[in-house]
Each structure stands twice: as structure tokens, then as C-alpha cells.
Amino acid sequence: MTALPAQRVEMIPVDRITVVNPRIRNKRSFKEIVDNIAQLGLKRPITVTRRIEADGPFYDLVCGQGRLEAYRMLGQPEVPALVVAADPEDCLVASLVENCARRQHRAIDLLYDIRGMQERGYASAEIARKTGLSMEYVHGVARLIENGEQRLLRSVESGIIPVSVAVEIAEAEDHEVQFALSRAYERGLLKGRKLLAAKKLIETRRRRGKGLATVGPRARERVSADTLVKAYQEETDRKRSLIRRTEITRGRLLIVTEAMRRLARDEAFMGILQDENLATIPDNIASRLRGGAGS
């Protein structure tokens, strides 16, 4: 990147700054940023680049989205910023690199960030150099992204499965996945709890697919009292219906049992059965027939 740092910090109107690579923030982490800035102030300025337009100047954010959004949340009209000279492509790449370099980031971040750099023509070697990630890691993540393997990506980021094993699983046929796990175990790449977690992940991937299910707004709604009452009533009705069917079935079985018991006392009928070699019956049925009428 050919950006040149500014000599001093400038106060920039927050409504003139555009976020070129917006991220979805964790609400708890963002609240901590807001509270920290409200109590202690901004420790590190954001970085922007200037765009000269008719009613400008305007600015593109290079890094510091969380700090910028915190200032907006606090109602501050201006934010301290370092202004650098860079073209839009350099700004976007710098923003992607910052996201990749976070201490804790999710597989979905890699999905957007590394993929974004790939779509702009950067080779795996260039991405590895800019982000500080290994060539094997970037190349493996790229292949997982191409296959839509979001579950495997998340397992790689959480340290459950090495990226090389994840790629092998992603490219294996269903009947070959267990062999991939066996090979990983033999090479010492998966052992103990990680092996068990990997097996569980593979089963979840088989049942639910490669992608991560998103929770829609309706699924996150709080359950109301009316909903709980309705669910309770439906479950009560279901169990009452089950009890009724059970009683009907029990009554029919008693009738059949009594009918067979009476036939067993009929010598002529038993003689016919013996002649046809049908006189024997299973022991559990015979014991029930020998029992009382209420058995």
C-alpha cells in the first residue's frame, strides 16, 4: 500500500466518512468500545483517506470502524483521524487486512475478507504476505470458501481441525470422509477430544449441510404467555388422545384374549387344530390365556 501518514491528527466530521468495508459487530464488544470511549476518550485515532468532491471534502475509512461507530453512537459531531493518501483499492485492501489480522475472528470474517481480496485479483501468496497468514492456510481457506464449507471453516478457526484436514474432508466423497479422519489420526493431526469433535462435526455436516444456518428474526422473537398456553393445551390434547386410543386398544385385546381362552376350552376346536398341526402357540400368549379375565 502506498499510503503516507499525516503529520498531525485532524478533526473530521463523522457524517462525511464512508465505511468502504462495513462489518457486523458483536453487540457486547461494541458496547464495551462505546463505554470505554465515553469514560476515557479515544486512545487511537481512526485512519481515513480524503476524497475531493463538489461539496467535499469527504473521507473513506481505512481502519477504525468500531471507534467511528462509537463516536456516532455517543452523538459526537467530529472524530480524531489520521488522513493518509491512498486510492480506493488500497483503502479496501487495508480494511480487509485489518479484519483478517484481528486477534479473534470468525470463519465468516475469512469468508468475506479473504474472498474479497481474491475477487480483486490478489493471489494466495499476496494475501498471505499482506495478512501475515501462512500460504497453506490462505490456500486452504480459499478452497474451503469455493466449496461453500462454512462449517469446516468455523472448525478451522476454532482450532478443532487443521486446515489441511478440512480441505481433505471437503474434497472427499461421503464414503471417503471417515478414511480422511483415520489418516488424520494416524498422522497425529486429530487426537482425543479434537477427534471426537471432528466426528461430531462431520455428522452435523452430513445431516445439515456445509453451510451455517442463519437465525431469522421470527426465530429470535420472545415466546409470549399466549404461545406457551397454546403449546401446553396442544400437548395436553395430544396426550389425552393417546390415552383414549390406548384404552380402546386395551379393550380390544381383552376381548380377543377372552375369545381365544374360550376356544381353547372347546375340545372339538382343539382337536381340529391338532389335526392341522396348529395346536401349539407361543409361551407368552399361552401364559396370558391361562391367566384371569383381567390379565
TrEMBL record:
Domain ParB-like N-terminal: 10-100
GO cellular component: chromosome
Pfam families: ParB_N, RepB
InterPro entries reported for this sequence: Chromosome_partition/occlusion, ParB/Sulfiredoxin_sf, ParB_N, Plasmid_RepB
One Gene Ontology biological process: chromosome segregation
Superkingdom of source: Bacteria
Extent of the signal sequence: none
UniProt cross-references to PANTHER family, sorted A to Z: CHROMOSOME-PARTITIONING PROTEIN PARB-RELATED
Full protein name: Chromosome partitioning protein ParB
Organism, scientific name: Sphingomonas naasensis
